[in-house]
Amino acid sequence: MSEEKKMNVNKQDLPADVRTSSAAEVMSMRPLTDIHETKQGVTLTMDLPGVSKESLDIDVDKNVLTIKGAVNLHTPVELSPSYMELHSGVFERRFTLGDELDSAKIEATLNNGELTLHIPHLEQHKPRKIEIKAA
Amino acid sequence: MISNMLRFPITMFDDGLDDWFFPRERSVRQQTRSAYPLVNVGSTENNVDVYIFVPGMEADALDVVIEKNLLSVAGERTQADLHQDEGDYTRQERYEGQFKRVITLPDEVDTESAEAAYRDGVLHVNLAKRAAVKPRQINVAVH
User: Fold this and answer.
1) What are the φ and ψ backbone dihedral angles of A134, each rounded to 5 degrees?
2) What is the domain class of A3-75+83-125 according to CATH?
């Protein structure tokens, strides 16, 4: 795969919590993500445990895709934590989308805390066979 | 010699923590995958609550066992079929494969009381604390 192809989805490399949270906001975690590319488009798979459909926001602003989800564990109010590996209540991550991706046609599925996003290539960027007419 | 000394501080902090302060692009293979699954434990006056984060798993594919005071969760997470013959992964951070986590439960829990629920990729195990843990007065018989 060429370098150019790999640039389709660029991770903005700063941790989400440093880059996006305002002073008033809680620190967010960067969800672990797999990115898979084919000629048809890009598929992102993301771990968002504890995030429901209702608490998940997916936005595209110009060429920036933002995924933000709040974790709800339905914990009892009086619960006091004794051991924690997952610290924050918010997942957030941004990706810059390449020009060849059709951000208007993003398909999202959330199942068991696993988000799958399909972003197809624009029609004019899909590989196309040119027919050669007989003279 | 001088060049070695100059390099030293960089390799010394090359364990990931500096990424917070000096973020940089890593290749797919260098990207560290975090432990799977993550675990949170908390308690209330009468209960101990264990949260095990297993996104992408179906509830019936989880093997949850309590033996003595050990709670173990095991399973296997497989990658979705994404026409892998055709495309390529440009980034892989998520855990894939078999996993097992064993959690030592506090002595005061009644393991018989364990109840497990699964929602949005989080396994929640609720255990009641035994009443017997409360301090008990012992009468001293006088002979």
Assistant:
1) -75, 135
2) mainly beta
Q: How far apart are CA B121 and CA B54, in angstroms?
A: 5
Find the domain containing B50 and state its range: 30-82+91-133
User: For chain B, how far is it from start to end, CA to CA, in angstroms?
Assistant: 83
* CATH number of residue B111's parent domain: 2.60.40.790
Residue B125 burial (C-beta neighbours within 10 Å; 0-12, 13-18, 19+): buried
Q: Do B90 and A35 make contact, defined as CB atoms within 8 angstroms?
A: yes
Nearest partner of A31 among A115, A120, A117, judged by Cα = A115
* Chain B residues near residue A52 by CB distance under 8 angstroms: 120
CB contact under 8 A, B88 and A1: yes
The pTM of this model reads 0.73
Task: For chain A, give every domain's residue range.
Answer: 3-75+83-125
For residue range A87-114, list pLDDT tens digits in order. 888 999 999 999 999 999 999 999 999 9
